[in-house]
Structures are given as C-alpha cells and as structure tokens.
C-alpha cells in the first residue's frame, strides 16, 4: 500500500505538468485570459515546483520525509480545489503556484522514502516502477485532459482537470500517514539555507516574469530591469552555494559535481532538451485547437503519435545504449531535430498531406526524445564518483524542472509574437535539439574517451550504478587535479 501511494502521488504530480495544456483554449475563452496568462498557467506550476524543490528535500531530511510528504499531499489537495474553483485567471495562476509548491514537497520525498523502504532487488523494482509511472503520466497528459474536458461532468468543463485530483488525494491521505514508515537523513546537518532558497526562487521567477509579461506589455523598461536583477540573483545564488560549501555548511545544491569531466556538458544538454520538450505540448495543443480547429479530444488523440514513438523507442533504448554507449544520446538528439523539422514542414503543407506529415513528425520526435532522454540523464548522474551521486541527482532534477517553465517563457516569445506562429517555433525547437546534440556529443567524448562511448548498463545507467551502490570509472575531476581510479584507491595528486 505504501508503494502504491508513493507511485500514485508521482503520477498525479507529473500529470499536472502536462494535463492543463489541453485545457488552455477552453479556460482562455471562459476566463478571458490573454496569452501571458496562458503561459503562466503552464509555467507557474513548473516554476514553483523547481524553486521549492531545492529546499523540499532538505525539509524532509530535517523534519521527517513522511511528515513532509503527508502535508504536501494535503496542500496539493487544497490547491487543486482552489484551481477548480478559480473565478479569474489571476486566482487560477496563484493556485497553480501553490499547487507547484505542494508538488515539490512530495516529489523528492518519494525517492528518499523508496530508498529507505526497500533494498536490493526490491529497490531496483520500485525505482523501475517509478520510472514507468513518470513516463506514463508524461505521455498521457494530453489525452487524459481531452477526455476529462469532453466528458464535461456537471458542466464543469476545464475545471474537471483540476477537480479530479481532489478525490484521488483524499483517498491517499490515510494510507500515506498509516502505511508509510518515517525516515530521516542519518546526517542531516544543521538548518536550512533560506537565503539560498529566496535567491533561487526570485531569480527563476524574475526571468519568467520579465519574458512573459514584458512581451505582453510591449517590452517596457521595467522588464529589462527585472530580467537583469533576476540573472544577478541567480549568479549570487551560485556564489552563495559555493561559499556555504567552503565554510563547511550544507548547501542546497552541491556544486562540486561540476568538477567532474562531462557533467557540465551533459547537464546543459538535459536542460536544453527539457526546455524544448516542455514547450512542445503547449504550442502543439494551442495550434491544433485554435488554428486547426480540432476538438480538445481530437487534439489529445493526435498526441498519441508522439506517445507511440516514445514508447516504442523506449523498449530498445537501453539495449542500444548498452551496445554503443552514451553517444546514442547525441544520435537521439539528431533524430529529435529531424522530428521537429518535419513538424515545422507540416505547417507549410495543405490538405491531407499536412496531417500525414504531422503524424510522421510526431513519431520521429517521440523516438528522439526517448533515445536522448534515457541515455543522457543516466549518464550525467553516473559521470560523477559514487560518493557524489546524490548531489548530482539533486542538481539534475532541479535543472529538469526549471527548464520546462523557462522554455515556455523563451519559446513563447516566438509563438505568441504572431498568433499561431507554429512553423517558426518548431524551427527554433529544431535548433535547440541540435544544440542538445552538440552538448551530448561533448559529454560522450569527455566521459567515454575518443570513441564517444561510455560503459552504460542494460538498465540505462552507467557501469558502477547511479544509485550509489557501486563506483564508476567515468568520474574524473576536471583538470585532472584529482583522478579516481576505482573504489578502493585514494585520489592521487599529481603535478600539472
């Protein structure tokens, strides 16, 4: 029962990242929302999730993971109810931000609780189920949203997308408290870095605010001032985290993982990938409903082609990565680039041919996403020494969650510049996928040698395991100041 509650919460949290995109046209008409407000409906949740994520895991270490998870579930229930009852788009966006914070309270506790509850084969099985649930929630968001809105139970329309969370969460409250064992970090350190949390949250929020509201307001002077201040806050945050680590205090993000060769390039590739993938669902949903005139259910059905490509390639991705190494990620990004280019071409073709080209583009794009995402994320985590796997996972998760709202804000500049700018947006996405391919190739060279291949296991992780149970020979300090040669040897200093 405990595992079912944890997996169910994971499904709900991920689903709410994507399910609302199907409802955007309907709620825009009902609440008279402008394009900036629509962007906030999607970006607000992801932005709050990313900003709160970096402190939520720390709260679990200090207060107890079951306690933080339970109250996160309570808050998510109340926030979902507020979203469903929102009388204006402003109230809706405020509730979405609260919903994102609540989701962040649950998210990191799930992984930590499963690690504490299971060992050995049972743990590997639990994490495999968790990965399956995440993938299923991501690819089914559009279709689930379309079904709920089309059902129109009690004439609730788009509000049902949020209201459906309430009974599901209420059913999970009692088993969440009674069945999930409590756990805390063995060495939780002291205190919470509130200064770092405020700097990170204000920096991320400021970037999205400047890009979204600045475009809607015609780029007034204040938008550039806010953008500059937000970027400065993020720079100060990075320096602040380094300062805390040097003083022996626990940082929110352990930035020492960037000393490992390949980690920075791989992380950059993941960030670019998630920024593009996140905005695709928003742009395509609006294009199909507002430009092509499809119903919300038919638009959700079109996404089945993207899901099919993703799922089919997921079955062979691990085997390809095991045989050819992490260079498969670079190839996958090139496949994704081709998929985006074909999707852009569908916007320049008329008649039945446009739908055929669109379907082909979605299948190719889905296959590319599965290849690059599966190979690159596992390799980035495994590119560090096993002692820093937890820190690397935290940095990776933060970048993944922050990239989606930032992608909506950045690529939204292209799409909303001319209403229905589908072709230019997809061409920009193709360019971003090409950039991700370059980062993935650089990462492969750095962690795997000249042939670009890294030793990656059948389970999608690099040899030595990404769960901290083994060592990895790919974890080398940048600049070769320290070189790790295995789990039984000490780091050896040598002269430059």
UniProtKB/TrEMBL annotation:
Q: Where in the cell is it found?
A: Cell membrane
Membrane topology listed for this record: Multi-pass membrane protein
Q: Where is this region: Disordered?
A: 458-496
Listed GO CC annotations: plasma membrane
Where do Basic residues bias regions lie? 475-496
Specify residue ranges for compositional bias: Low complexity.
464-474
Q: Sorted alphabetically, which keywords does the UniProt record give?
A: Antibiotic resistance, Membrane, Transmembrane, Transmembrane helix
Q: Which GO terms describe its biological process?
A: response to antibiotic
Q: Which CDD domains match?
A: MFS_MMR_MDR_like
Q: Name one GO molecular function term.
A: transmembrane transporter activity
Indicate whether Transcription appears among the record's keywords: no
Annotated ranges, domain Major facilitator superfamily (MFS) profile: 2-444
Look up the domain of life of the source: Bacteria
Chief location of this protein within or outside the cell: membrane
Q: InterPro entries, alphabetically?
A: MFS, MFS_dom, MFS_trans_sf
Where do the TM regions start and end?
38-56, 68-91, 97-120, 132-151, 157-180, 192-213, 219-239, 260-288, 294-312, 324-346, 352-372, 393-416, 422-440
Q: What is this protein called?
A: Major facilitator superfamily (MFS) profile domain-containing protein
């Amino acid at each position: 029962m405990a595992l079912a509650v944890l997996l169910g919460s994971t499904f709900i949290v991920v689903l709410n990242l994507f399910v609302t995109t199907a409802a955007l046209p309907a709620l825009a008409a009902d609440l008279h929302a402008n394009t900036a407000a629509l962007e906030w409906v999607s970006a607000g949740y992801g932005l709050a999730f990313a900003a709160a994520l970096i402190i939520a895991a720390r709260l679990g270490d200090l207060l107890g993971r079951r306690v933080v998870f339970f109250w996160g579930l309570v808050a998510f229930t109340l926030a979902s109810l507020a979203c469903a009852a929102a009388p204006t788009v402003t109230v809706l966006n405020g509730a979405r931000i609260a919903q994102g914070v609540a989701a962040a309270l649950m998210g990191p506790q799930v992984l930590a609780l499963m690690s504490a509850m299971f060992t050995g084969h049972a743990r590997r099985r639990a994490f495999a189920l968790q990965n399956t649930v995440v993938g299923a929630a991501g690819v089914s968001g559009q279709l689930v949203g379309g079904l709920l809105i089309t059902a129109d139970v009690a004439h609730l329309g788009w509000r049902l997308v949020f209201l459906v969370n309430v009974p599901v969460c209420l059913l999970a409250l009692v088993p969440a408290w009674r069945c999930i064992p409590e756990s805390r970090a063995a060495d939780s350190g002291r205190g919470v870095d509130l200064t770092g949390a405020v700097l990170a949250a204000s920096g991320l929020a400021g970037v999205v605010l400047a890009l979204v509201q600045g475009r809607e307001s015609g780029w007034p002077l204040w938008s550039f001032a806010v953008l500059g201040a937000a970027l400065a806050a993020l720079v100060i945050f990075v320096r602040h985290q380094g300062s805390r680590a040097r003083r022996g205090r626990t940082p929110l993000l352990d930035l020492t993982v960037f000393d490992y060769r390949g980690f920075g390039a791989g992380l950059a590739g993941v960030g670019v990938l998630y920024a593009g993938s996140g905005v695709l669902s928003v742009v395509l949903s609006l294009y199909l409903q507002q430009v092509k005139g499809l119903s919300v259910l038919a638009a959700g059905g079109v996404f089945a082609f993207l899901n099919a490509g993703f799922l089919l390639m997921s079955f062979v991705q691990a085997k390809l990565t095991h045989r050819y190494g992490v260079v498969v990620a670079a190839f996958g990004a090139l496949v994704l680039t081709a998929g985006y280019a074909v999707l852009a071409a569908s916007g320049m073709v008329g008649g039945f041919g446009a739908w055929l080209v669109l379907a082909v583009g979605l299948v190719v794009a889905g296959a590319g996403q599965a290849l690059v995402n599966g190979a690159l994320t596992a390799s980035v985590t495994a590119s560090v020494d096993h002692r820093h796997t937890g820190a690397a996972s935290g940095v990776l998760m933060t970048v993944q969650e922050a990239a989606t709202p930032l992608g909506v804000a950045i690529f939204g500049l292209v799409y909303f510049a001319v209403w229905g700018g589908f072709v230019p947006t997809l061409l920009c996405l193709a360019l971003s996928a090409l950039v991700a391919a370059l980062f993935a190739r650089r990462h492969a060279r750095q962690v795997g040698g000249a042939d670009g291949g890294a030793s990656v296991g059948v389970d999608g992780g690099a040899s030595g395991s990404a769960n901290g149970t083994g060592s990895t020979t790919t974890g080398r300090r940048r600049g070769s100041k320290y070189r790790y040669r295995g789990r039984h040897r000490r780091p050896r200093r040598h002269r430059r």
